[in-house]
Amino acid sequence: MMKSLISAAALAAIGLGAASAQTIAVTNGRVVTNSDAGIVESGSVLIRDGVIVAAGANVSIPDGVETVDANGGWITPGIFHPHTQLGLIEVALESSTSDASAPGASFTAAIDVADGFNPAGGHIPDSRRRGITRFAVFPSTGSGVIGGRGALANSSGQPDSIFDDRTFLYVDLSQSGASTAGGSRNAAWAYLRAAFEDARFYPGRFMSHHEGDAINRFDAASLVSAVRGEIPIVLQVERASDIRRALRFAQQHPSARFILAGAAESWMVADEIAAAGIPVIMDPLRNLPASFDVLAARLDAPARLHAAGVQTAYTTISADLYFNPRLITQHAGNAVAHGASWEDAFRAITLTPAEIYGVGDRYGALADGYAGDVVIWDGDPLEVMSAPVAVIIDGVSQSMISRQSRLAERYAERVPDGQYGYRH
Amino acid sequence: MMAGALAGLAALGLAACNGDAGETANGNGASTGNGDGLVRFNPDPYPSTYTPFPSEVVLIQGATVFDGIGGEFENYDVLMQDGRIAGIGEGLEAPDGATIVDGRGRYVTPGVIDIHSHLGVYPSPGVSAHSDGNEITSPVTAEVWAEHGVWPQDPGFDTALAGGVTTLHVLPGSANLFGGRGITLRNVPSRTVQGMKFPDAPYTLKMACGENPKRVYGGQGRAPGSRMGNMAGYREAWQRAVEYRRAWHRYWDAGDADATPPTRNLELDTLMGVLEGEILIQMHCYRADEMALVLDMADEFDYQVTTFHHAVEAYKIGDMLAERDVCAAVWADWGGFKMEAYDSINENLALVHAAGACAMIHSDDQLGIQRLNQEVAKALAAGRRLGIEVSDGEAVAWFTSNPARGLGIFDETGSLEAGKRADVVLWSAHPFSTYAVADHVYIDGALMFDREDPARRTVRDFTLGQPGEGVL
């Protein structure tokens, strides 16, 4: 008896129990579509072979399909976190458990987080249990202001979790980037310009030398796709003046595509950012002059960015990016508390991130042709007391068990001291 | 005004040791007083100069009121008079000249209390010159006092106020086995830290378990370099404190004005205050097994641990905490950042509460302190999903009366009971909603924050003339 319980739980915990994608219907809930259909007060979603085939009020459910009853709860697209280190870090202070950065490495742009990503990362199940189905995985900067290339993953925990690698290039030009560059913003920008030139003239420049002005041959080869705009460059910038500098740099390199991350003071230059058509990834909770980089951080910054027409996604940089990306719904809810519309805030953690990474036709909405990523909630997902009751990824119902949930259950009941070790 | 448990705390230091709660004369740290010619110490050389802001008679009408000690009352009124709670009830009569506040559709709680903050000692901006919260130069620094590092101009006080925080406890950091004394502050603007000091609040002593001390000092090739070294370091210091206390008592009890007094030791003054029961231990410990060892050590040297902070694994030993009358201050969901935080679960707070121990939320964070109501809501919701029945009213205690108890100031604040300080928050919606914001925050009955009134917004010096001036 004990033995079979253990194996069932263990299987569920590592997701081996997942059935292959067939037809699945989610019925009887308040459907947030993120499409022209808007919010449907009572509706359903039908998923076939992992893809949504119908969503809305009048979805006919074929006989005999697996049906998940939302019981009047909320049915939404899965949360898409635009900025995490899930699968890269297990315990931040134990460097042996972290693959987020490599200050001693000799490479920059050539670094690819997909090589270090662990789909079985210990914090992914708890993110999934909290409604996160898709996320961007970011490198940290190591030996230069260019951190490397990020990837997009789902939270299924399966070996094929990464569905898009080498998706974007991460570059830090904020205060921390200045420090990585040797001590000043000036040096950080000089490095980036030189690296750009190295990549623009790759491979010619490297015919006679192995080294470019800033980066080596291998890094330059990797940077080419970013310089050409095949993948976007995520620029970490906070201060309004740095953001203006980034906008100017973008103008000077029309073939490259940019995303601003951090962007604490972006509300001050919201109109310019909107005019440049550059997206922003920012944290709604930062509101203190925590450094001279972010003197003007404020809680209504998201509302101001939305009002100016800036394509804005939210992140959890003030919490952390590997254990607590799951707090992103709370961060979005606080944006609403400080002036953002609910619809804008919810899009900022679902469809907008997908759009920013060029996969907005596939993820972030409940509409025909979108991936079957659906979450059923027991209430408004932006309320801190709400939680998912079911999570579906690519049409497959996911385990709601995590190491944390099992610890809670182990200690929920008082038993004689030594017996804890036998409660699985 | 101070009643009950706090009466004995009027004298916080050594003078109380021989039962003679002596006022000392010159406040210069040591004096001969009481006419017996014996050397005694001034327990309060940096006295509170806190004065409440001017308050009016205020009647909040028709709100949903949480009293902070378990009660939830619909369509209730709260009356504040002379800076104190005059009463709560249904249909209270407005005294002449009372300011009437329409509370319909809104919610009232006691002021939010954070038992674990580093505002002022790790202020914004977090530049190196502002790093005043950790005396990382020796594993035992019980002689340092957080109040000597607090920068009253930290903009974080202003944003915490907007989050409903009326009282906060500022601790020195956790690099050391004994980090130093904490200080309880009123969240009011002041040029000096003395102007923020909670009058007559007991002093506290910060201690730290586990990975921080062993990492900081072990990394320097000094003790402690392990958890064994941590325990050895605490015990060695406690033993010195026992001997120090014995020497002073022997001197005082002898009553011989010509005798040479023991040499004063500022580090041991603080430890002796703990042994006398006058200084409250606030101990940073994550792991259940370590907390159990610390409780044994408290028995060994005969002192009481008031509260374990960051008690990530408190849920594993809720029964032991309840038996020993020790509180746990926890986060809703921080974890994973070091091994001793790896077993963090959202249900921690609710499980500890269910085991009958005194539990509370804490922030340790300048952003988290702004939303302790939401942190409690998350912990409550997680607990309920596990089947733990806790009412909203009980959970409000997790950010009001329980931290007040942990700080030894519950007789003065932490609940909406007649006679207590009128520390009150009027929320725009249920405080467990993400969308709720503090509309009014009262400290001692004075309206310190009004969301609708920019003129009534505290703005610390640092933000004046900066791009972020006056924003929240």
Automatic annotation (TrEMBL), chain A:
Superkingdom field: Bacteria
Presence of the UniProt keyword DNA damage in the record: no
Alphabetized InterPro entries for the sequence: Amidohydro-rel, Metal-dep_hydrolase_composite, Metal_Hydrolase, Metallo-dep_Hydrolase
Pfam families: Amidohydro_1 (PF01979)
Signal peptide residue numbers: 1-21
Alphabetic keyword roster: Signal
Location of the Amidohydrolase-related domain: 279-386
UniProt entry tagged with the keyword Methyltransferase: no
PANTHER family linked: ALPHA-D-RIBOSE 1-METHYLPHOSPHONATE 5-TRIPHOSPHATE DIPHOSPHATASE
Protein name: Amidohydrolase family protein
UniProtKB/TrEMBL annotation, chain B:
Domain Amidohydrolase-related residues, every copy: 350-445
Keyword Signal included in the entry's annotation: yes
Required cofactor names: Zn(2+)
Gene3D superfamilies the UniProt entry points to: Metal-dependent hydrolases, Urease, subunit C, domain 1
Lineage: superkingdom: Bacteria
Key words, A-Z: Signal
Signal peptide residue numbers: 1-21
Annotated Pfam families: Amidohydro_1
Name by which UniProt lists this protein: Amidohydrolase
